[in-house]
Amino acid sequence: MSMEDYDFLFKIVLIGNAGVGKTCLVRRFTQGLFPPGQGATIGVDFMIKTVEIKGEKIKLQIWDTAGQERFRSITQSYYRSANALILTYDITCEESFRCLPEWLREIEQYANSEVITVLVGNKIDLAERREVSQQRAEEFAGTQNMYYLETSAKESDNVEKLFLDLACRLISEARQNALVNNVDSSLPGEGKSITYLNCCNFN
Amino acid sequence: MADDLPTEFDVVILGTGLPESIIAAACTRIGQRVLHIDARNYYGGNWASFTFSGLQTWIENCKQELNTELAAACKGQALDNEEIIPFNKRNQTIQNIEVFCYSSTEDGEAVEEAGALNINSALLTTVTSSDGQENSSIDISKNHTSTEQNDSPEGRSDLEEATNSDQRSADSTLETGTIVEVEPSLTQAIQQDSPKTITYSQIVKEGRRFNVDLVSKFLYSRGLLIELLIKSNVSRYTEFKNVTRILTYHNGKIEQVPCSRADVFASKQLSMVEKRILMKFLMHYIDYELHPEDYQDYENSTFLEFLKSKQLTPTLQHFVLYSIAMVPENAKTIEGLKAMQHFLRCLGRYGNTPFLFPMYGLGEIPQCFCRMCAVFGGVYCLHHSLECLVVDGDSKLCKAVIDHRGKRVDCKYVIVEDSYLPEQICANVSYKQISRAVLITDCSILNTESNQEISVLTFPPADKGQTAVYITELCSSTMTCMKNTYLVHLTCSSTKPTAKEDLEPVVQQLFTLSTENDIEANDRTKPKVLWALYFNMRDSSGVPRQSYAGLPPNVYVCSGPDHCFGNDHAVQQAENLFHELYPSEEFCPPAPNPEDIIYDGECAQQEPSESSIPVDSKAEASAENETVVESYEDSEAQKAE
User: Fold this and answer.
1) Whole-structure pTM value
2) Domain range B2-92+364-431+543-640, CATH architecture
């Protein structure tokens, strides 16, 4: 695939506690695979999937944590130029839900303030072991202005929807941003214009 | 998830500064199991950068004394024939911290030094409106291209443009034979129509916009670090800005140093004769090795004497010595020629100056190498201290380390940043010091139409025995400071007891230090300092291994940042240490491009690792590099025409 073969390029970054299924979500979406009991993804920086929405080719660059979340040691630079964040927890693990505020603090500090954040409750195939109710998660997402979605990487439930919805939102934001940018550029520190700059330059 | 550390690694690395991070990445790239630890809760050690509130915390922590007792847990973990070498847990590399606030506080309260730094109260202050911000909105995409360095089309077009415009202006000048000599004093350049005063609480409120580097360095566009970032593909994690101006302080004025041919001919400080002399001199000595007869007689003299002998005027001598070669006055001829050649060769690769600066600050760079390390399986633990090394009684080799929870981790090699070494090992080491100042100012030291310049200025030494001060001025589009401010870094080798004594005289010459809110008209020629920080950082870069006493042979030491302007020392050190550990392995080979990795549906289930990387990815990468290099050389050749 040639590098110019798309209309938009977005960087999507996954965060959340270790073991909530971040890598499985990415693999399910990009490769259609669910590798049970897979180890860490060695040597893979990010995965690419190009999707077509309303006749436009959207290239999604999906970044995983490279295991640095295990001991709370994610680099700030990981967040820097993300267009969207997928904050994931495991619906069968209360602890992974309780850590969300901590993750939000990191987002607030390092990600650009216009980043789109989606909260994802993964592993709904294990509904019988659910520890976090959908209502609770929805309420929490509401207070933080996040979209919320429940998924199963294993059963492929809502995985496509998660990424495609996100792509749609990113496109409409990019359009708005481009309009706004003509009159008034975004604040320095948002980092957004840089990302779009790259995006446009490859066109 | 109760996730305990694995009990065995090949390499344990303590400290996340630049050299340690490069080594970490290099080790996992050849399949070694790496545990990378830092006792601090942030990446980078003395290479880190901080938001404004993060910087306050850092300042507080530097003043604190930590519990230095060896955790009792350690004792039980060592076996009978093993000895223990405890790590140092107190950071003694930062001293003489002094903070001054010159910006007004909202309620009119006088602000004196550290008292004003109560973060909590300041954070709660709400700022009503920030007027005057709109008239200077920044269009990053127009004024500045962020150059991704690989082989981005952007970088090339930039270069072509620069080259073309070089030629155009040179041609037209030569044809008409006239050079307009305008002599307006540049220091009295355009003032903003409405002076905007930034208050301390605005700085605090916008604190997230700041990324204040503890060390201030730029990247030479053909320096070792840029070459390594490109070669290893670590460059994909970060973006850069071109440094836009080289400045010089000459006869009490700040002037822009002409770098490119276009700059030279457009320069207002040089006479026509000087312009020709300078161009001829630079073109001739870019390949100084080809003309040994021209400098042989001066090999034992200083570079300055050599410059004098070449009929350069005092202005040109000053330009070449301080701003192009950037060497001290006592540098020898060859050293000066080499530095000048390096500078000239770096020109035009990405922009009109030889330097690049990473977006969000230099502190990003170690993190980028850490990310690469993690992607290849390195385990990361910040805020995790190691208590001691475990040394075998017979072989005297280090066998393991023990962490603060008493957990023993076996390893083959230990790499440690020197600040963690205990006094017993460092007793005979003498250190140099670096003096640093960080200023937040309200306008540029050399105002022009653009308020988004990134500048470097070498301030010549005031007295004999002192060293030149490197000054970098960063604008808000580097993502290191808030809008309508500049972040200024001053760095020199220490010659006086404290950083403030070394640097304040320079600060006073270039800036206005005043807590007064109203600005007198005559003061407006200088930028106003809103906030200032001084500190000394230990420079352990020149310490030879032999000066550490009783270090097990398989424990290697990385030094902290050096005082030089580039990053070559750290990269060279990392490469050397890596090759001591693994003499026959390649240092940081290119990581595969994620888009080139082919996943074989079935295979991937069993082997989710590197096995599926196409063989030719390396070849491709190097072929690409070659074409890039070629095109640069072409354009350089054009330039030299």
Assistant:
1) 0.82
2) 3-Layer(bba) Sandwich (3.50)
